[in-house]
Amino acid sequence: MTSSYAEFLQQLRDEYGEHFSQMPLPDGLEEHLKQLIQQGDQDSIQFMLKVAWQFGAQAGFAAGLRVAKQGSAETGEPSPSFLRA
């Protein structure tokens, strides 16, 4: 049995995997991650994930606020009221 989070990630991978596979990572990150995995440094890996998650959440929230205030970029229509700040 898989967790709902694992299922969610698999959905994202199925839908956007090709796009993300073409996205470069910062220089040295892939090697650093491989080293952390080889060393079994789970704490550092979890810290990296938490930082990335936090940055993504902040960017998503900011984008949602912008759409709520300015309306949809495609239609110029106001966003649903539950998105408005």
Structure explained in plain terms:
With 85 residues, this protein is mostly helical. The chain has a domain of 45 residues. The chain is extended, with a radius of gyration of 18 Å. It starts with a helix and ends in a 15-residue tail after the last helix.
Question: Any descriptors?
Answer:
mainly alpha; 3 helices; 85 residues; single chain
Number of strands: 0
| Termini gap | 39 Å
Q: Approximately what portion of the residues adopt beta-strand conformation?
A: under 5%
Number of helices: 3
The oligomeric state is: single chain
Structural class: mainly alpha
Largest sheet composition: none
Element order: H for helix, E for strand: HHH
Helix content: 55-70%
Mean pLDDT: 84
What does the radius of gyration come to? 18 Å
Low-confidence stretches: none
The outline comes out as: extended
Question: What's a quick, concise take on this entry?
Answer:
This is DdrH. By secondary structure, the chain is mostly helical.
